[in-house]
């Protein structure tokens, strides 16, 4: 999000789960925290009035929800499906879901 050239604008930020991501439940992992920044990487506050300078873009990375259940107990077919869809990497499948290399 950005203003018209030559103008700045302000936001009244009210973004949740940036400092305290969602908790996992019954062994699930915590969700990813949200992030508010400018396109040059400058950090912004998740709450309060802030100016977005001329020529800059507001970047929002929305938080993720917490997981449910022990990842290692997830159905193997669902882990494979997540891999195919690109939701997780090979390394994540091995480290988080304890997936063994296919023979």
Report on this structure:
It is a single chain. This protein has 103 residues and is of the alpha+beta class. It folds into two domains: 1-69, no CATH class; 70-103, no CATH class. 16% of the residues lie in helices and 19% in strands. It is built from two helices and four strands. The strands form two sheets. The protein has a two-stranded antiparallel ribbon with strand order 1-3. A two-stranded antiparallel sheet has the order 2-4. The radius of gyration is 19 Å and the shape is elongated. The protein starts with 8 loop residues before the first strand and ends in an 8-residue tail after the last helix. The mean pLDDT is 95.
List keywords for this structure.
two-stranded antiparallel ribbon; alpha+beta; 2 helices; 103 residues; elongated; 2 domains
Summarize this structure briefly.
The chain is an alpha+beta fold and 103 residues long.
Low-confidence regions = none
- Subunit organisation of the chains: single chain
What count of structural domains?
2
% residues in beta strands: 15-25%
Overall morphology? elongated
Q: Report helical residue fraction.
A: 10-25%
Largest sheet: 2 strands, antiparallel
Secondary structure tally, helices: 2
Average per-residue pLDDT, rounded, comes to 95
Structure summary, number of beta strands: 4
How far from one another are the termini? Answer: 48 Å
Helix and strand content put the structural class at alpha+beta
| SSE run | EEEEHH
Spatial extent as radius of gyration: 19 Å
Question: Which strand order does the major sheet show?
Answer: 1-3
